[in-house]
Amino acid sequence: MPASRPTAAALAARLTAAGLLVRVAQHPGHAHVSAVVAEDFPADSWRDVLAALEEADGFGLLSTGTNTGRTLWAVIRTPDQVGPDQPQ
């Protein structure tokens, strides 16, 4: 039985539980999850963040070079963008 696809709502809930304020935007074919990560974000919370991001189809951390911290982003493809050789 194939593993179930992660959802943006589940990812957002896990990131929120780790202490981040999360935004979710739905787009055709994917959802984009993002959160601003303050410079003083607790180091011990990163383990939970990285565990949550394992479920995403892609993710990254963008440093804006300003005092607003960094932006964490993740992409979750929706079922219409999953190919036949990938789990649904």
| Number of helices, where a helix is a run of at least 4 consecutive DSSP H or I residues | 2
Could you estimate the helical fraction of the residues in percent?
10-25%
* Helix and strand composition category: alpha+beta
The whole-angstrom Rg is 14 Å
Share in β-strands: 25-35%
H-E string: HEEHEE
Shape: globular
Give me the count of strands.
Answer: 4
Instruction: Provide the spatial order of strands within the biggest beta sheet.
Output: 1-2-4-3
Oligomeric composition of the shown chains:
single chain
Query: Could you describe the largest sheet, including whether it forms a barrel?
Result: 4 strands, antiparallel
Poorly predicted tracts of residues: none
Task: Please describe the topology of this protein.
Elements (H helix, E strand, L loop, with lengths): L7 H10 L4 E6 L2 E8 L8 H8 L4 E6 L6 E8 L11
Antiparallel strand pairs: 1-2, 2-4, 3-4
Describe the protein.
- Strands 1-2-4-3 form a four-stranded antiparallel beta sheet, covered by helices on one side.
- It has 88 residues and is α+β, with helices and mostly antiparallel strands.
- 20% of the residues lie in helices and 32% in strands.
- The N and C termini lie close together (10 Å).
Task: Produce a short descriptive summary.
This protein is α+β, with helices and mostly antiparallel strands. It contains two helices and four strands.
Task: Name the features.
88 residues; alpha+beta; four-stranded antiparallel beta sheet; 2 helices
